[in-house]
User: Which sequence fits this backbone?
């Protein structure tokens, strides 16, 4: 089998196993939608000012939760699945077969990407129907898709990279959340930035990829301006993550 | 061949046929200054079922994982099917089947799906149905891995290792932690694989496992080889003195053999060079006097005894034959 066929074949098996673990699939999909519902119920009547644009709070959250969904599906999912596979010896077994490492990793990344796309489609559709969120079309749709794919790839790479500091599968969830949660809050995912947002928070948001990614998603779903610099910053993080992942990835449990 | 044999001066075996499946010379490996493997030599023939036997920490797994290509070595020559597992691992991988000591299998795929997936990695795999039959998992074909028992999962691992139709199979402690029936099931599956003429390298700390499965055994202790041979001759077992044992009945007179003092249950024991002669003397004596030789038995030291003697204490590692 060619490398491509082998990779796609792997995607099929990963996908099969993914949906047969109901808890994992459920939470990946339920969390963003549940948060969307909760946030819009609590704060949905307000307005958010983005530049000169006044945006309904509910529409803002559609974009924010779509971003959040992509991050969960890629960063969290890859980090947890890899540590689980590493600690139970699944990775070591695969490493003993002729399956090329690149096919293995690519199949996992592609699968997460597909899940991320599905999540964004669901969130956007739900947001459109329930809260009147915009749907990207035309050139904006293309830009939006570029950001979505670059972002999903980046968060997969970062998810792979973080496994280097996860000592065992039990520690995976706390470490992943500890790494991501503060950045999510400091990037305006859960609470929109306003005029009173402290300067240091803005700087944190500017450095990490989450805010840049969320702005790209927002451009597509809210209609705010799209900046290619956001894509570049996210891609730079992705490359850094990939380099670290390739350097420190382990097929065997860390002792 | 016979027709042209006369034209040849000599017809030695072709060199390729004589080449061993595995040859190891002066292998050393240390972890953080502690030597796990201290210069061992091994040669394993094609088609042989070979057991590496020893207690935990003897260096078996380190040795096997170096042969499989998982670990680097510090020193020594290693050839596996003609390749160096450290530098030619990708060429070696399609030829190997590996059952690691404790590894998981994707829990949410079925037995057949798992095997089909692993088969797709290899250039000339066996059919999924064939390997399922071989390890006796027909009834569990469409069961998810997560629902298999320990023994069934281990047999699935054997099937995974075998589905690529490897020339060489590594089984690292295939039955550790199993109940007796699961062990027996796994043994039968291994026997089936061996009957197909594959070279099998097995590590175990169970004597009976080595005895049941292996053609040849190497005993390791403290990172070195302490003994080598067929299970029946290991540690010169076939030349060891036999033990004759029976229970003295109260008031019986002294038998003709040199028995020691009776133990708590009244059993006496003698070590003899030739049990045939000794038994003849003893039974003749007993028949003449009408003395009952209660619980009479004649035994060689068990493989277990030999193994314990060989692996007992670090001094066994240094000056073995």
Assistant:
């Amino acid at each position: 089998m060619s490398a491509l066929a082998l990779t796609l074949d792997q995607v099929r098996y990963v996908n099969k196993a993914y949906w047969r673990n109901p808890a994992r699939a459920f939470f990946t999909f339920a969390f963003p939608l549940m948060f969307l519902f909760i946030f819009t119920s609590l704060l949905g009547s307000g307005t958010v000012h983005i530049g000169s644009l006044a945006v309904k709070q509910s529409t803002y959250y559609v974009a924010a939760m779509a971003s959040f969904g992509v991050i969960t599906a890629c960063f969290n999912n890859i980090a947890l699945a890899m540590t689980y596979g590493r600690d139970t010896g699944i990775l070591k077994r695969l490493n003993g077969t002729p399956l090329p490492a690149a096919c293995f990793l690519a199949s996992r990344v592609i699968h997460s990407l597909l899940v991320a796309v599905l999540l964004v489609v669901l969130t956007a559709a739900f947001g459109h129907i329930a809260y009147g969120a915009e749907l990207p079309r035309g050139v904006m749709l293309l830009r939006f898709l570029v950001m979505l794919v670059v972002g999903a790839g980046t968060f997969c790479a970062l998810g792979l990279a973080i496994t280097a500091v996860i000592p065992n599968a039990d520690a995976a969830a706390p470490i992943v959340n500890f790494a991501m949660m503060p950045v999510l809050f400091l990037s305006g995912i859960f609470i929109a930035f306003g005029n009173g947002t402290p300067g240091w928070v803005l700087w944190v948001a500017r450095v990490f990829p989450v805010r840049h990614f969320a702005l790209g998603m927002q451009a597509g779903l809210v209609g705010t301006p799209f900046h290619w610099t956001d894509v570049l910053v996210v891609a730079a993080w992705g490359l850094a993550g990939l380099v670290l992942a390739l350097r420190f990835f382990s097929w065997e449990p860390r002792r | 061949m016979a027709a042209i044999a006369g034209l040849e001066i000599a017809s030695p075996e072709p060199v390729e046929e004589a080449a061993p499946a595995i040859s190891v010379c002066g292998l050393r490996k240390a972890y953080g200054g502690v030597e796990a493997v201290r210069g061992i030599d091994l040669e394993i023939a094609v088609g042989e079922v070979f057991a590496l036997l020893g207690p935990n920490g003897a260096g078996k797994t380190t040795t096997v994982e170096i042969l499989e290509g998982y670990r680097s070595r510090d020193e020594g020559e290693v050839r596996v099917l003609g390749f160096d597992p450290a530098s030619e691992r990708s060429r070696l991988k399609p030829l190997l089947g590996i059952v690691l000591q404790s590894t998981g299998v994707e829990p949410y795929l079925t037995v057949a799906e798992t095997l089909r997936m692993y088969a797709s990695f290899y250039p000339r795999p066996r059919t999924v149905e064939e390997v399922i039959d071989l390890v006796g998992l027909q009834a569990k074909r469409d069961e998810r891995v997560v629902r298999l028992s320990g023994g069934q999962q281990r047999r699935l691992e054997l099937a995974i290792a075998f589905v690529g139709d490897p020339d060489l199979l590594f089984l690292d402690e295939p039955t550790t932690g199993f109940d007796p029936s699961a062990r027996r099931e796994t043994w039968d599956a291994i026997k089936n694989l061996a009957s197909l003429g594959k070279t099998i390298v097995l590590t175990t700390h169970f004597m009976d496992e080595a005895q049941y499965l292996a053609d040849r055994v190497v005993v390791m202790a403290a990172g070195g080889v302490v003994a080598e041979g067929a299970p029946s001759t290991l540690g010169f077992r076939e030349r060891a003195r036999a033990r004759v044992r029976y229970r003295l009945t109260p008031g019986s007179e002294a038998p003709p053999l040199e028995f020691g003092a009776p133990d708590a249950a009244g059993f006496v024991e003698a070590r003899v060079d030739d049990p045939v002669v000794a038994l003849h003397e003893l039974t003749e004596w007993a028949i003449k006097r009408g003395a009952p030789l209660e619980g009479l038995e004649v035994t060689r030291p068990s493989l277990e005894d030999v193994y314990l003697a060989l692996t007992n204490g670090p001094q066994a590692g240094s000056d073995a034959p």
User: Anything to note?
Assistant: Chain B has a mean pLDDT of 83. The longest helix of chain B spans residues 180-194. Chain B has eleven helices and twelve strands. The interface with chain A takes residues 68-70, 90, 93-94, 96, 98, 100, 102-109, 113, 117-118, 120-123, 144, 160, 164 of chain B (CB under 8 Å).
